[in-house]
Amino acid sequence: MTPGLGQLEPLLAVVPDPPASWMTSIQGVALEPSHVKQLLTTAPKDMKAAKELRVKGRAAAKERRKAKRDAGS
Questions:
Q1: Is 25 helix (H, G, I), strand (E, B) or coil?
Q2: Contact 65/59 with Cβ under 8 angstroms?
Q3: Structure letter (DSSP) for residue 73
Q4: In this structure, is residue 25 part of a structural domain?
Q5: Residue 71: inside a domain, yes or no?
Q6: What digits encode the pLDDT tens for the residues 15-38?
Q7: Can you say how many angstroms the Cα of residue 39 is from the centroid of all Cα atoms in its chain?
Q8: Looking at per-residue confidence, does 27 or 4 come out higher?
Q9: Phi and psi torsions of 27, nearest 5°
């Protein structure tokens, strides 16, 4: 047995059990939804196409840097 539990038992007998929110009737109070619908995500719908686009963008940026470096020389 847990030491000191005997001292807590009389106190715990007085504490009422908390009711479950979905089992209680709340009148006149509007409940807020517990689920937030995610409307927009930052993840692309087509991951493969997004990756290909990034690769092409990096290659184009590399070419621009190379052209700028060659034009400056």
A1: coil
A2: no
A3: -
A4: no
A5: yes
A6: 877 777 666 666 666 666 677 777
A7: 13
A8: 4
A9: -105, 130
Residue 44 near residue 50 (C-beta atoms within 8 A):
yes
Q: Tokens for 50, please give them.
A: 């997004």
Instruction: Give the model's pLDDT for residue 62.
Output: 96
- Split into its structural domains, the chain has a count of 1
CA dihedral 12, 22, 37, 51 (to 10 degrees): 60
Note whether residue 20 is domain-resident: no
Distances (CA, A) of 35 to 29, 30, 31, 38, 47: 18, 15, 12, 9, 27
Alpha-carbon distance 56 to 54, whole Å?
A: 5
Residue with the bigger pLDDT between 11 and 34: it is 11
Tokens 């840097």 appear where?
65
- pLDDT band at 8, cuts 50/70/90? confident
pLDDT tens for 39-68 read 777 888 899 999 999 999 999 999 999 999
